[in-house]
Specification:
It contains 9 helices and no strands. The chain has 243 residues and is mostly helical. It has one domain. Helix 1 runs antiparallel to helix 2, helix 5 packs antiparallel against helix 6 and helix 6 packs antiparallel against helix 7.
């Protein structure tokens, strides 16, 4: 298993990310007049984030980029924690707040989500700015935990809305349902690993393998669910760009 994950973990993960993005592009015409179009843009954004985020590997293994290591040494840029903290954890949480707000009907819940977005931006910016050096070696546990509870809140709000409406009978026809399932399972599986990031080094291969196994399953599940949702769902009349 160790040899398999070392060799194929990154490749398999990127294949499923690419699959979801390509599925989104193929289905774009179907959803171009709905809020789902934003999610398709987000899937393409993920590809960008994941590929740029691998820059430490590019710098280490590519002679053309070796000179950058001189400038990155002993800074937060030597590793990619800062990149994924900002452009995945923070940015993706903001996107899901944005996306689900467009799919919620309750005015008061939408207001909570709206001001929650503003508050999250302020809190995350303060945490990162005041303790920037922490990103040399790990992620901010506080931001990860806040992001988890935000995801839990907006997904719960969406599920409650579905249960109270006629959509509950045909929930599998509504694309936000697939997004909610995918991101909820991913968050539940991966967030606890934040507290053990200090063990993620070659002196503890047992933890590295465990983390890779969890993330591999979480990624395969999430991107597969996204892809299935894009394929089986049809544009909703009340999912206009005006929401």
């Amino acid at each position: 298993m160790k040899a398999f994950l070392i060799e194929y973990y990154s490749i398999i993960t990127k294949l499923f990310e690419l699959m979801a993005a390509i599925t989104g592009l193929i289905c774009y015409r179907k959803f171009k007049n709905t809020n789902v179009k934003y999610f398709i843009f987000f899937l393409i954004y993920i590809l960008f984030v994941e590929n740029i985020g691998n820059y430490p590997v590019y710098v280490e293994n590519n002679e053309s980029f070796k000179w950058l290591s001189i400038y990155f040494e002993d800074t937060v840029f030597e590793e990619n924690y800062w990149w994924f903290q900002i452009f995945w954890t923070v940015a993706s949480t903001l996107f899901f707040l944005f996306f689900f707000r467009k799919n919620l009907n309750n005015f008061y819940v939408k207001q909570v989500v709206k001001y929650g977005m503003y508050s999250y931006i302020i809190v995350s910016t303060l945490i990162i700015s005041l303790q920037w050096e922490i990103l040399k070696n790990t992620y901010f546990q506080s931001i990860d935990v806040i992001s988890f509870f935000i995801i839990l809140f907006i997904v719960s709000a969406y599920f409650i809305q579905i249960l109270k409406s006629e959509k509950v009978l045909l929930f599998y026809h509504h694309f936000p349902f697939y997004v909610a399932c995918g991101i909820l399972v991913f968050s539940i599986l991966t967030t606890p690993l934040t507290f053990f990031e200090g063990y993620f080094n070659t002196s503890d291969w047992n933890y590295i393998i465990l983390k890779w196994q969890v993330f591999l399953f979480a990624n395969i599940f999430m991107y597969s669910v996204f892809s299935i949702g894009l394929i089986v769902c049809k544009p909703e009349k009340n999912s206009s760009l005006e929401n």
